[in-house]
Structure formats: C-alpha cells, structure tokens
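Budget justification, computational time. The allocation requested in the original proposal was used primarily to generate structure tokens for proteins on the priority list. As evidence of use, we reproduce two of the resulting records. The first is shown immediately below.
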Amino acid sequence: GTGGTITGCVEVIRPRKPSFQAIAVEPEASPVINQTLAGQPVQPGPHKIQGTGAGFVPANLHLKDNAGHPQITECIKVSNDDAFAMARRLAKEEGILVGISTGANVVAAIEIAKRPENAGKLIVTVACSTGERYLSTALADEARAKVGA
C-alpha cells in the first residue's frame, strides 16, 4: 500500500533486466498515481480497496529514479467491484484467501497477460494481503450467508 514493494522490486530487478516493466495498481475511484504521472492535479476519491490508494503518492513510491527516468511503466486502475469479485473468486475457485488489494493486483495481472504483446511472457504479481482480516466485512458476505453466520 505504501509503494515500497514495487519500488524495491524495480531497484533490484531493473539493473539486472533492463526490459523489466513495473506496473502499479490503484483504485479506479482514486487514481492519484495516474494523475501524478500525467501531470494533473491530484484529486483522491473514496474507494473500498483497503490497503492501497491512500489518496497521495507516498514518498517511498519512486515514480522516477535519481536521473529522472520513469520507474513505473504504467498504472492500471481497478474498480472496487472487480477487486472484490477477484478476491472472492480466488477464495472460491483456487482456495486462496486474499484481501481486496490482492484481488485488484490479480485483476491487473490478468489484464496485462491478455495483451497480445505479452503472449508467452512471464507476468508476476504480489499477493500483499490475506483475506482473514476481511472475514467480517462485505468481502465475505456470501461465505457467511452459506454457513448461517
């Protein structure tokens, strides 16, 4: 959520593999990274993807390196509904209990993998949140209803 993970990955991987692309993910309703990259005024908005989209670009999210070169290749916006749906899908179909921000990351990774130019390429994402902390939230409504909780 703070940007440290993607910044650290870029700083370690890119010197070893210059073609490495770092693609950030943020809430569609609060696209502050995209606004910053486009040179627009930052206008955060409310969203439900907990653990991401703080409403500002954190200091440890390095959008450019010391020489001014872009560190982030792109930033994909993901809707609340898509992030929730993917987190639920991962639990239901794959048995992986993740949080909403991980759901957003997987939505973006699938979008990237579907691009023709990425056929045969390795796409990696980070499962940065567990779903355990969301068991009493809307993320788990369907599961609670099934067990009568």
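The second record produced under the same allocation is shown here.
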Amino acid sequence: MNNPTLSNEAEKPIPDIRKIIKDIIISRGDEVDKWFEDISEKTPPFFYNSVDLRNSGFKLAPVDTNLFPAGFNNLNETERKKAEKTTKEFFAKYHPKVKKILIVAEDHTRNVYYLENIAYLTSIIKGAGLQVCTTNLATSESGEDVTLKSASDMDVIFKPAIRDGNRVKTKCGFDPDFILVNNDLTDGAPELLKDVEQIVSPPVGFGWYRRRKTSHFETYNNMARDFSNKFNIDPWLITTYFQRCGVVDFKERKGIECVALRVDKTIDKIKAKYDEYGIKEEPYVFIKSDRGTYGMGIMTASSGDEVFEMSKKIRNKMNTIKGGIQNTEVIIQEGVPTIDEVEGHPAEPMIYMIGAKPAGCIYRLNTQKDSYGNLNAKGMGFASISSHTNDKQVCDSLGLISRIASHAAAWECYEEIYSI
C-alpha cells in the first residue's frame, strides 16, 4: 500500500478533520462543554482510561479504548502535573468522600516498564492529595509483601489484600474508600472483589472476560453520531465501520467464511465513502480479537480472499490472545492509515484520560511497521506529542474525540460473572 492520495475532483471537498474539530472548539466550545456535561450527569465517567487514535488527515477516530491503562510513565512532567490536577478535580466532583485508594495491579511483575507505570500512577494519586496503596492478586494469595524494582530502579511495593466482610483491606490495615483496577481481568472476575461495598473502578464486569470491543464501538458510534448531528459534521470522519464474527477457530479454519464475507462487506462500505470524497486509496481492515489488549491476535486485510489464503503461521498467530486464551471472536474494523510520524516512523496518538478529560498526549511509534499496520507490536516506542508538533492545540482536537470514547466506555453495560 502507498501513502494516502487525496483527489480534489470529488463532489465533496476532501475534509481536514483536525481543522474541522479545531473550528468547532473555537466557535462552539461552550456548547461542546455543555454536551459533555449533560452526558456526565446521566452516567459519570470512570476514573481513567486511554484512547488509541488514528489520524489519516481526512479522518480521526479511536481504534481502541483501554479501561486499564498502563504507560503513565510515558507522560512528561507537565502532563503528570496536569494528571494530578485532573485527579483532584475528578474526586472532588464525583467522589468527594474518597481519601484512600487501593490499586489492584497486574500480576506480571517481571515487566519493569509496567512497574514503572504503577510507580508513576501512584505518584499522580499522591500528588492529588490522596493516600494510596498497591496490591495484586498474586500477592494477596501469597499473603506476603513483595517489593520490586521498576525500570528506573524505583521500589514498587505490593501489599497483600484480604476480605473483611464486604470490604477489601490490606493485611497491614489500609482500608480504602476506592478500589482502582489496573488489571484487565482477562482470566475472569476475582473473588476478592465480589460484592464489595467500596467503589470499584472500572467495575469488575468491564474486564476483558466480559467486555467486547464491538460493544464499545457500537456505543461510541452512537454517541459520535449524536455529536456529529449537533455540530454538523459527517460522523464517518470520527468513527470506523466494523462488523463481528463470534464463532471462529483460526487453527481449524472454522468460521473463516464469516470473517471473509464481512471483510468484503466492510471494504465495500469504506470504498463508497472514499468515492464520495474522492479519496484515491485502497480500503483495508483490521481483523482483531474482540477482547483483550497487548496487540495480540491482529492482522490486516484488503479483501476476503486474503482471509481464505492465510498461511498456517498467521492462523496460529490469530488463534490465541493474552494468557494463551483461544481467540474465537473477532472484530473486523475499518483501517485508518496514519499520517502521523516521529522521525520518519509511523505513529498514532495515545491520549491518557482522567475523568474523561485529557491528561496526557503521547505518540506510539513503530520502527518496523508502515502507516497501515498495527503499531502496538515489536519495534514500538513512545514520544511526547508536544515535542513533535508546532500546533499547540493538537491535543485539544485529539482530546475531544477521546472524550467521546471515554464517555462511551462508561455507557457500556456488562454483567459481573464470578463463576468462570
């Protein structure tokens, strides 16, 4: 695939999506804030999330919304200070009685960069004037404190947590008002958090054992359409087409027909929009697991034939996600080629949100991929957006789309199941 080519021969002008959003913020900023405030009053946002965006110049849309974000260590000092301020504002507005927070982290404690993330997340919460303690499920099962070193040699201490009736406390007596989950719960809902009386955010039912990307994007697309209708833009410019296949076995080639058919249907819809705007580009899609993170179980395709022609190596790669869990449900999602670059390498914005407000804007880049590929893969790195652009308002436009995605996440609905 070549870089996106735009034609001016179309009936409609080629949209400059960042300019469109910037103009809305400048001319109708108060209305935008009121629109978000009305949503917050109906369903308050979660404490945090991160949003992966793709910017093609004519289109700016979320391609993933992570409710258990890592990577707070990638924020620069200014962004961390902003995160502290936003954290303080979030709890003052939504949970004014909260003074103590318990972070329930992932168990993969050999990842020193994840530990760095926990260290900085803890620092942000402390900087907001709150007390904080960290645990994880493995430490709670062992009953012993664990101290580990992060990538920059900071101590990260995990305290075992126990149940005391309907409350979760640490073994050493830390009794939190608020439990912040930083574990994606792919393996299921932990008994430790079942029916607790404290606030749990995000709720346990939003773990990847229950949550589906298609549910999120259905909710997001509906909310984005409402926004687009109010502010007079084509909703396609800030959304992606997608479809789902729910019974797939890549290894045994079962359900492949569903994937191939829906790839072709999605490609046809994208092509119709490209023709409408005169975009001279080959449409493509991402095929990825309908649940889970870590960039696993992902491939691109520009036709259904490519699905039928998958090699055994690709089928094996697509067959499993985190923890060796079989990938039986996939989302076929419109591919958005990125025009963003860092030092000549393709990049995509990652927006860190607190209380559905942007706290940090960074690029994920990849030295081994092109502008069409999955950048959450080997070869990736991170860079501050503010250090690679002269547009001081760039995070405002990125943040607006991310705010819609953040609120949409809180509007998803999942039942908590503990019998898995």
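A brief technical remark on that second record: Residues 72-206 form a domain with the Rossmann fold fold (CATH 3.40.50.11280).
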